[in-house]
Amino acid sequence: MLLEKTTRMNFLFDFYEALLTDKQRSYMQLYYLDDLSLGEIAESYGISRQAVYDNIRRTEAMLEEYEIKLALFHKFKKRQRVTDQLIKSLSAAQLTNEEIISLVEQLKQD
Amino acid sequence: MLLEKTTRMNFLFDFYEALLTDKQRSYMQLYYLDDLSLGEIAESYGISRQAVYDNIRRTEAMLEEYEIKLALFHKFKKRQRVTDQLIKSLSAAQLTNEEIISLVEQLKQD
């Protein structure tokens, strides 16, 4: 599994897991957080590997759909960039109060 | 309609409208944003006042369910409090850089 996709799915899961069913949440947790293989998940639930695979693929698509609609991960990254910039500049005392206020105002938006 | 409820529904609608159907979105928009009466909405859609009422009540319940699950409005208010405090203190130059950094760190959380 590509690291980039795993990281993205971990974030999307974090933001939207409350919108998933218990079963979807369980499979995603075992696959993405606990790093179990599809075969291992299938065995522990007594179902086919294909059924687990299909469920996880559908859940991934749902998470991407939610991200298109609500953009929580996107907004989170945007805020991270601004807060990181603020903290770095504040630590180096590189900003005037007016510049700091302007950045904080950006954080109020979403 | 109570002003407090209207304000809350306007916010919840703002955060979760992407998760509603087109019909739900239309009724909510006419009722809460455009301030039409249930009777006026019913007339323009050629359906009963009761049908509009039921749809809007169900949508309100859905929005509250999404808020229980995702808490976007709650987190927004929390960030607003911190950013307002930051801006007020920065304007009055009441905070040390360390205090500012600690508040910005809070904003990174959610």
From TrEMBL, chains A, B:
The keyword Protein biosynthesis does not apply. One of its GO terms (molecular function) is DNA binding. Gene3D superfamilies: Winged helix-like DNA-binding domain superfamily/Winged helix DNA-binding domain. Keywords: Coiled coil, DNA-binding. Residues 49-110 form a coiled coil. Pfam families: UPF0122. Might take part in the signal recognition particle (SRP) pathway. This is inferred from the conservation of its genetic proximity to ftsY/ffh. May be a regulatory protein. Belongs to the UPF0122 family. PANTHER family: UPF0122 PROTEIN CBO2450/CLC_2298, UPF0122 PROTEIN YLXM. This is UPF0122 protein DEX24_00805.
